[in-house]
Design a protein that fits this description.
The complex is a heterodimer. By secondary structure, chain A is α+β, with helices and mostly antiparallel strands. Chain A folds into 2 domains: about 1-225, 3-Layer(aba) Sandwich (Rossmann fold); about 235-350, RNA polymerase II/Efflux pump adaptor protein, barrel-sandwich hybrid domain (OB fold (Dihydrolipoamide Acetyltransferase, E2P), Beta Barrel), CATH 2.40.50.100. Helices cover about 25% and strands about 40% of the residues of chain A. Chain A has helices at about 35-45, 75, 95-100, 115-120, 135-150, 165-180, 195-200, 215-225, 325-330; strands at about 1-10, 15-25, 25-30, 50-55, 60-65, 70, 80, 155, 185-190, 200-205, 210-215, 235-245, 245-250, 255-260, 270-275, 275-280, 290-305, 305-315, 315-325, 335-340, 350. In chain A, the strands form 4 sheets. In chain A, strands 7-8-9-3-10-11 form a 6-stranded mixed β-sheet, with helices on both faces. In chain A, strands 2-1-4-5-6 form a 5-stranded antiparallel β-sheet, with helices on one face. In chain A, β5 (about 60-65) and β6 form a beta hairpin. The longest helix of chain A has 17 residues, at about 165-180. The model of chain A has no long low-confidence stretch (mean pLDDT about 90). Chain B is mostly helical. Chain B has one domain: MetI-like (MetI-like fold, Orthogonal Bundle), CATH 1.10.3720.10. The chains are: A alpha+beta, B mainly alpha. At the A-B interface, α2 and β7 of A face α6 and α7 of B. Chain B: Belongs to the binding-protein-dependent transport system permease family. CysTW subfamily.
């Protein structure tokens, strides 16, 4: 998918100026509320039109002020998943799912109902009304409805922000997995860095109506570590839980980690803040933290009054943060060996 | 037990016929106008708004008189219809038109309230899923404003049953032809010894109105429960 947006839009005191080209299948649009993300979404979907400029999708103009082109929303094949599910209340789950599919040209029907039922696991609710579904089910149906319209591009406008934390991280694999399995490129809009890290391969950052950066989610997370109250969030996929003396031990990147979290099923996603790691130059003999990882420094970067340290631990990678002075004392440099201590309670399960 | 003369029964039948016809004829226009007023913005919308609501405040007699001017043989529309061999004034068609005009604001208002309470995002969702505007209208907007359509139609029907002022001017008060229930009651009430007959028709009128309002409530609650 290749998308070119070059356009302005003014209403009241707000001015949006977008000028970017992105290619890829998992694009993130990151910004605080009021940064113009939703206006951008509406312009891409054809629900609002820019005052000037042009929007091209895969070389085809969706809007062009110069050429007087404004393709109406129903012909853009750009589907939307909103913050709230917005399911049609008078239709069943099946009726909702098939709404776009029925209106999609037969030649473009690559994704069918059976594919969606499989990836979203909604077979058991097909004939139910939509009002009594749970929040997660509703959002999955909304996603299925959008995917079944066989769009060239799927816009997801903060699709997780109305869900609670647990549900949020349960839905993410569906969002990403379904789009990947069905080969539908998406634009994921959010103000959450963690969501960006999980959903996007490339991120365009918006602030006050204009785009200010174009980066990978990891670069973005690093650049924001300095001012972020939660630090850099490491995302770890832990496997093979075993009970171990009141703690749970998990496998991660060739290491065993000890967590206070109770064991769960299969691969689990945990977050670990860069703030919750302590670095030692030499092996400390006795320490209360249950995890002591021998790591190699692979990168260091400045982040305000702190220094970020990228560590290679087994086959995994973690980012820790230390005060600039500490970095000097420990003589942290690429290639040096350190020990990272992490408390068993520092890992927080997502989903 | 009140007894009805054949003329009374004819008046009851005619009232029902006029009310049904006025409601059915107005419905498509009511939906169209409600859609335009809910979703489109255009210059002079306020003026249209005022004109739409005018029949609510204008005395029905005035409406009847204006219709008479419009539809009479020398009227702008009446002249054209006359040339085509169609006579409207002093027929039951005129009663239908009078009822339709007087009840129209009620119909539009109910449908509009229902349409405006539909979440804008639902309509946007249907558009991005490939529905053109008329497709959105028939598959999202109309089903979701069904309650308003039902409510508006029953109000319109009820209002038509009671139409008097405009009808008497533009359709006249011809027993068996244009004499609806209210007109018959008026006749009885203004002639000596007609009190009992007037009261009997009043009871029928009140019964019909109550039935319409109960039906309105019943359908309204059913539609709510389903959605």
């Amino acid at each position: 998918m290749e998308l070119l947006v070059r356009g302005t839009k003014t209403f009241g005191a707000f001015h949006l100026a977008a000028d970017f080209t992105v290619a890829g299948n998992r694009i993130g649009i990151f910004g605080e509320s009021g940064s113009g993300k939703s206006t951008l979404v509406n312009m891409l979907a054809g629900l609002e039109h820019p005052d000037s400029g042009e929007i091209m999708l895969d070389g085809e103009p969706l809007f062009s002020a110069d050429r007087r082109i404004n393709v109406p929303p129903e012909r853009r094949r750009v589907a939307l998943v909103f913050q709230h599910p917005h399911l049609f209340p008078h239709l069943s789950v099946r009726g909702n799912l098939l709404y776009g599919w029925k209106r999609c040209a037969v030649a473009n029907r690559q994704v069918g109902l059976d594919d969606i039922i499989d990836v979203l696991k909604i077979g058991h609710i097909l004939d139910r009304g939509v009002t009594n579904l749970s929040g997660g089910e509703k959002q999955r149906v909304a996603l299925g409805r959008a995917l079944l319209s066989n769009p060239r591009l799927l816009l997801m406008d903060e699709p997780l922000s109305a869900l609670d934390d647990t549900l949020r991280f349960q839905i993410i694999p569906y969002l990403r997995g379904a789009c990947e399995a069905l080969a539908i490129p998406y634009l994921f809009i959010s103000h959450s860095l963690v969501e960006m890290q999980l959903m996007a391969e490339r991120v365009i950052v918006f602030s006050q109506g204009r785009q200010v950066a174009d980066a990978t989610p990891d670069d973005l997370a690093r650049s924001r570590m300095g001012e972020s109250p939660v630090g850099y969030i490491n995302l770890l996929r832990l496997t093979d839980p075993r009970d171990n003396d009141g703690l749970t031990s998990y496998g991660w990147a060739g290491n065993r980690l000890f967590l206070t979290a109770p064991p769960g099923e299969g691969e689990l996603l945990f977050e670990l803040s860069s703030k919750d790691m302590i670095l030692f130059k030499k092996h400390p003999e006795a320490i209360s933290a249950r995890n002591l990882l021998c790591c190699t420094v692979t990168d260091t970067f400045g982040a305000g009054r702190k220094a970020g340290v990228e560590l290679q631990c087994g086959t995994g990678r973690l980012v820790a943060e230390v005060a600039v002075e500490a970095a000097r004392e420990l003589e942290l440099a690429v290639g040096s060996e350190v020990f990272a201590a992490v408390k068993a309670s520092a890992f927080r399960r997502l989903g | 037990m009140p007894t009805f003369t054949p003329a009374d029964l004819e008046a009851i039948r005619l009232s029902a016929k006029v009310a049904v016809a006025a409601t059915i004829v107005s419905l498509p226009f009511g939906i169209a106008v409600a859609y335009v007023m809910s979703y489109l913005s255009f210059r002079g919308k306020t003026v249209v708004e005022v004109l739409l609501n005018l029949p609510l405040t204008l005395p029905p007699v005035v409406i009847g008189y204006l219709l008479l001017l419009l539809l009479g043989k020398k009227g702008w529309l009446g002249g054209m219809l006359d040339a085509a061999g169609i006579r409207v004034v002093f027929t039951w068609y005129a009663a239908v038109i009078a009822s339709a005009v007087v009840g129209f604001p009620l119909l539009v208002r109910s449908i509009r309230i229902a349409m405006e309470s539909i979440d804008e995002r639902l309509i946007q969702a249907s558009r991005t899923l490939g529905a053109r505007w008329y497709d959105s209208l028939s598959t999202v907007i109309l089903p979701l404003s069904l309650r308003g359509i039902v409510a508006g139609s029953s109000l319109m029907f009820g209002r038509s049953l009671g139409e008097f002022g405009a009808t008497i001017i533009v359709a006249g008060n011809i027993p068996g032809v244009t004499q609806t229930m209210p007109l018959a009651i008026y006749d009885y009430a203004s002639s000596p010894g007609g009190e009992k007959a007037a009261l009997a028709l009043c009871l029928v009128s009140a019964g019909l109105s109550l039935a319409v309002l109960f039906l309105h409530e019943y359908l309204g609650s059913r539609v709510t429960r389903r959605s």
